[in-house]
Fold this protein.
Amino acid sequence: MLEVQNLSMRFGGLLAVDEVSLDVQEHEIVSIIGPNGAGKTTVFNCMSGFYKPTGGKILFEGSEVQGKPDYKISRLGMVRTFQHVRLFSQMTVVENLLVAQHRHLNTNLISGLLKTPNYREREQKSLDRAAYWLDRVGLLDLANREAGNLAYGQQRRLEIARCMVTEPKLLMLDEPAAGLNPAETKELNQLIISLKEDYNVSVVLIEHDMSLVMDISDRINVINQGRPLASGTPEEIRQNDDVIKAYLGEA
Amino acid sequence: MAANNFRHALFCAIITLIISYPIIGFNLEAQGINVTLTGADATTITMVFLAAVIVFLFQLFREQVMGALRGIPSPFPEAKNEPMAENKRAKIESWVLTGIVVFALFWPFLVSRGSVDLATLVLIYIMLALGLNVVVGLAGLLDLGYVAFYAVGAYTFALLSQYLGISFWLALPIGALLAALFGLVLGFPVLRLRGDYLAIVTLGFGEIIRILLNNWTTLTGGPNGIGGIPDPTLFGMEFGRRVKEEGNTSFHETFGIAYSGEHKVIFLYLIALVLAVFTALVIRRFMRMPVGRAWEALREDEIAARSLGLSRTAVKLSAFTIGAFFAGFAGTVFASKQGFISPESFVFLESAIILAIVVLGGMGSQIGVVLAAIAVTILPELAREFSEYRMLIFGAAMVLMMVWRPQGLMPMRRIHIELKKQE
């Protein structure tokens, strides 16, 4: 469903991403790994529309999306999280989820002002969806807390829930396990698998936690210094000499 | 530490002297065509030195003084006891607010004409502050030229009535819509700006409007302003002693009561009250709607908001437009109340005062903003005896407020939403 062809991104004299290609099929978890500064997040930023790539193509469900504004790309069903949690920290947990569903609500101002039955129905639906996902990530009891007051692991889960209420087809997670303890990482592991299995969402994952990556990925792409180094199943990557030299290290 | 403190205190005292001595200590006196510089009298000089000594002592014992200040309990103690159940609290709140509005409806019949006039002004400021609260408090866009939209509303009514003879009731929506249009137009160039840069551009916009009104003498009368703006009518009934316009009747004749100048004042007050309540209710509703949440999301984190599919353009423009709309409302009422407007009424100080109301009340909090509007408008009136020191007292009150309660009189409280568990 997603195809990235020869993507390049140049910042002045620095070629941050050089001819990177990858593809994601339906119902698949694909990881991007590589050393720090390899350009993984830059690839994400290009895919999600934060950067306009200087070369290459990005096809989502057959149509070109490179260079489109970020909010349009996310409306197509490609939603991302961030390396550093970006919640609306002064708003409550449930409001965070309601913001994400603004498109499911009737955006007509008049019907909202008059609280027409149609508007109420849509509002109730989005509340129900928010409640469902809060329950799913174990935050239902904290629904009216300010998001900024949650523990770090809870904020991570809330960010994923906030993406999921938009009903995306493709979820892009940028280091979701950063700063989590082993138990929380395990929970996250199960959550991501269930997103794929139960909600039929494809996932692109940037992660440094190798146990997580090797556990859940269907395929892995390795990037080093902006260039693609290898791609394949976890087993193939584990055996690849170049990858071991550049990133995994010899045991 | 002590030596450091002493040096700092000495430095502050010297700065006080350097700033105040040349300004207060010397007088320019005109003798014929010559201007001579003479020293001020001994008492003034003593006062300046006394001020320096006070600054010195305060800075020296700053820790102790501020410590003592902090010891004073806050005028609004945080509730220590269990918070009330949300639905119960909301019910009590809505009853109290309804009660206040009903009281405000009957209040003008009990008090003097001057008080009613002042209360009308308070209501106009409430409308302005509620509108600016959308832009600054909710959407987080610092707007220093808000008074421009107020001016657009006021001048729309004044010009329409002067050239086309349009009445208050027709001018009210036109003024508000035109102000909203100006908000939209200002919104486009500042879409990419945030914070300080946005503040400067909006400040410039406010000045452009004022200077335009000042210099376009053929249309606006320039600094002479526009007079003879008609009062609002009640279903074709005028409030003057004699009917000015063909086909209208006068209020006191229709009801067979003696003419009184107070009728008009009270009627204007009631119009302002209804409009202010309308403004508050509409914005309150917006805050619970997707558009209100989008404003706040953009304030909290623009990148995250965009990654969730919110269009920055639509969200920012809607905040500017809706904020300006209510300023246009207030402007129309203001023009009608004064009967005369000139660019003098729309200087930067007005923008600053409205912004001060929003900050003082607590960004985003409607009740707080209303309270602050009342305080900021009435306090200078109460302090009228101090005449030239009014702004000084106002400034001191602001500083103290920010030391004690930086989050504002009544910080915004999040809306509580009940969720049912989904299976």
About this structure: Chain B touches chain A at residues 282, 285-286, 289-291, 293-294, 296-297, 300-301, 303-312, 414-417, 419-422 (CB under 8 Å). The CA atoms of residues 109 and 223 of chain B lie 36 Å apart. The first helix of chain B runs from residue 2 to 25. The first strand of chain B starts at residue 26 and ends at 31.
